[in-house]
Amino acid sequence: MTTNDQNRQFESSESDILNQILNARRDVRGNRFLSTPIPQTELDKIFSAALCAPSVGFSQPWEFVTIEDITVRQKIAESFRLENEKAAKLFQAEKSNQYQQLKLEGILQSPLNIAVFYNPQKGPVLGQTSMPDMGRYSVVCAVQNMWLMARSLNIGIGWVSILEPERVKDIIKAPANRELVAYLCVGYVDKFYDKPELETLEWQARKKAEQVILKESY
Amino acid sequence: MTTNDQNRQFESSESDILNQILNARRDVRGNRFLSTPIPQTELDKIFSAALCAPSVGFSQPWEFVTIEDITVRQKIAESFRLENEKAAKLFQAEKSNQYQQLKLEGILQSPLNIAVFYNPQKGPVLGQTSMPDMGRYSVVCAVQNMWLMARSLNIGIGWVSILEPERVKDIIKAPANRELVAYLCVGYVDKFYDKPELETLEWQARKKAEQVILKESY
Lengths: 218, 218
Prior knowledge:
The structure is a homodimer. Helix content of chain A is 40%, strand content 14%. The first copy, chain A, is an alpha+beta fold. Chain A has one domain (29-205): NADH Oxidase (3-Layer(aba) Sandwich). In chain A, helix 2 packs antiparallel against helix 5 (134-152). Chain A is globular, with a radius of gyration of 19 Å. The longest helix of chain A is centred in the middle third of the chain and has 19 residues, at 70-88. Chains A and B meet through helix 1, helix 2, strand 1, helix 3 and helix 5 of A and helix 1, helix 2, strand 1, helix 3 and helix 5 of B. Strand 5 of chain A pairs parallel with strand 1 (62-67) of chain B.
């Protein structure tokens, strides 16, 4: 069987490897990134993973902007700083203190950023007529594919969402109709943590399967 | 190295297997599903994949309702029929004819459906303060993990989005604040197609990488 045989049956050992990749994927922040550049061959694999994501009505409504320019990234980092300052005030006293000690992005520490946009299609999209968010969800599926492929290449990704989307669009000259879905920091790391950092720091507890999986109805 | 070692380095052969799974994943509709039940061990693996998805602020805002009851699924299928009838009218003459010939769901043909909800958290969520859709996007990441794990177990998933979300909530008695993100049909298949069906049928053309990957800015 070749890699082009999409009807191929996978072995349980292959499913196990997927399970290991899924479990080893982490959100990486600036305290773990190395400045080592990402080889183009590896970046190609990450984008190839994005482009085979599912998309509603095969609309492929995604766009990716790779950003290395440090002056551009400094402007993005400034948007993070402003938004993060506002965010810290939304949490109660003790939680707000803990919040302010967290490192939540790696915009400047990682060698590469990727801004991911939703490009809405003109006219109706098959499968999106009753649920208008489906196009945005397709873009998210592409991001998750990238994240997993990166991890399998031992490359870390951090998804930064504490940004003013319109400011990001402005900085990288995105057309008015585009919507920022994700802003990714990409780079090799000194280590991947065993658990999500917010779990280790007891910011929020892990939910049990039986709390979130229901049978037949609520 | 064990599966519990999250810092583990993956080999290129392991990354290749992920690439094969990503490429072999398909959206499966009713004409390909077999009625063979899904063993609980396999379903557990699919949910385990969901629960290690990334979530904004470790909020884990997902809920999954497994649906086997045929009378419930008949009600869901009726919502699909109504929404699909409306949808067909939105496309132009020739496209509308083609639309009406497509098989777009496998609600009754698959042995298992899973409704996936976003359960918004009370109070602020870390990482969601500037981009309110982040919780919904976390749920989508969980769905993509499920889809990939299912494919690695040679199980197909079809994502049905031609449904009235409030009607689905009503049918399975979801609390008012929950939001339907995805409705999945799950089952073994007689075959996985080589390409997305909508690509083969020339509903929409595949975009080239250079159309959607930009350097530094628009």
